[in-house]
């Protein structure tokens, strides 16, 4: 927003500089009417002045981008400007009022060192005025021309400094926006880590209290059922035992939903290895699991995402791929965990794929600032790769 304001302010000032010469050309034309010349002379002079105004409007006002991109056009424009100004000054000394505008236009329209040539050429116009005292004028120009060049150089330096500051400000704004984005990612990851840690704590607490208590209740009810000789009592004990077993199953299901089972007592590499081994035994497809890099603990939410990705990929292979071989690779890189799952199965059209599992996987990984890449084609197998940035976690 601020950059747009800078640009708009710069465009307004450029417009002012482009229109400023008319502020001198108009009064000069008006003053020229008071010369003791005939009306025909005045009409021709005004026509030339109008032509100069159109010339300036076409090259500078109507096409401001030419000042920066069309050097040869600007050289043509400035040559025509000087020639017309010389003609007007020769017809009426009143147009000497317009000559200072040529100094300004030299720096507005001519690039680099050519602007100083334009300043020197503009100074020569003063010598063309009727009745000019050439020695005195040359003495004045010896002071005025360097002064005009110095002023123009100063304005250019100030303009370059303003542009440099604007660009630096834009970079700072971009860096601030990127820092804010990274801060948001870190906050979200911290929240996710805290949530995952709390879920794991709750799972442990439920396992160590409620689940263990229900297990003890089931055991006691089974013992009481065996010791009770009365059928009505045995029947009621059996119902109580069945209710306790059902509650124990629900508690264990809740524990599994709070903390992925394979990660409860294992590191990520071990959990993925067990998942791959279990899938191999279930489907009878040769499956190779490889770990590269130095394994290190990752945030819980990252480990869960990687494990779920492995489970989803293997599940899809089992249902659709008809693969003869599967390779699972878990790579630990500098601040990055990468999972690659490849198969030599039937493949599919990636662009047409819209399954819920892949969508959920992309969303889960995206929340961790990770990426999901899938390469596949009908008959060419499939390669799934997910990468999740992780920090080093002391283990």
From TrEMBL:
**What are the subcellular locations of this protein?**
Cytoplasm
Q: Which cofactor does it need?
A: [4Fe-4S] cluster
Q: Which residues cross the membrane?
A: 16-36, 43-60, 72-90, 102-128, 134-155
Which keywords, in A-to-Z order, does the entry hold? 4Fe-4S, Cytoplasm, Iron, Iron-sulfur, Kinase, Membrane, Metal-binding, Transferase, Transmembrane, Transmembrane helix, Two-component regulatory system
Q: Which GO terms describe its cellular component?
A: cytoplasm; membrane
- Protein name, please? Oxygen sensor histidine kinase NreB
Lineage of source species: Bacteria, Bacillati, Actinomycetota, Actinomycetes, Pseudonocardiales
Q: Which residues form the Histidine kinase domain?
A: 306-392
Magnesium listed as a keyword: no
Concerning Pfam families, the annotation shows:
HATPase_c, HisKA_3
**Principal EC category:** transferase
User: Looking at the keywords, is Membrane present?
Assistant: yes
Q: Molecular function (GO) terms listed? A: 4 iron, 4 sulfur cluster binding; metal ion binding; phosphorelay sensor kinase activity; protein dimerization activity
Reaction catalyzed: ATP + protein L-histidine = ADP + protein N-phospho-L-histidine
**What Enzyme Commission number(s) appear in the record?**
2.7.13.3
Q: Which domain of life is it from?
A: Bacteria
User: What is the recorded function of this protein according to its Swiss-Prot or TrEMBL entry?
Assistant: Member of the two-component regulatory system NreB/NreC involved in the control of dissimilatory nitrate/nitrite reduction in response to oxygen. NreB functions as a direct oxygen sensor histidine kinase which is autophosphorylated, in the absence of oxygen, probably at the conserved histidine residue, and transfers its phosphate group probably to a conserved aspartate residue of NreC. NreB/NreC activates the expression of the nitrate (narGHJI) and nitrite (nir) reductase operons, as well as the putative nitrate transporter gene narT.
Q: Which SUPFAM superfamilies match?
A: ATPase domain of HSP90 chaperone/DNA topoisomerase II/histidine kinase
Which PANTHER family did the record assign?
NITRATE/NITRITE SENSOR PROTEIN NARX-RELATED (PTHR24421), SENSORY TRANSDUCTION HISTIDINE KINASE (PTHR24421:SF62)
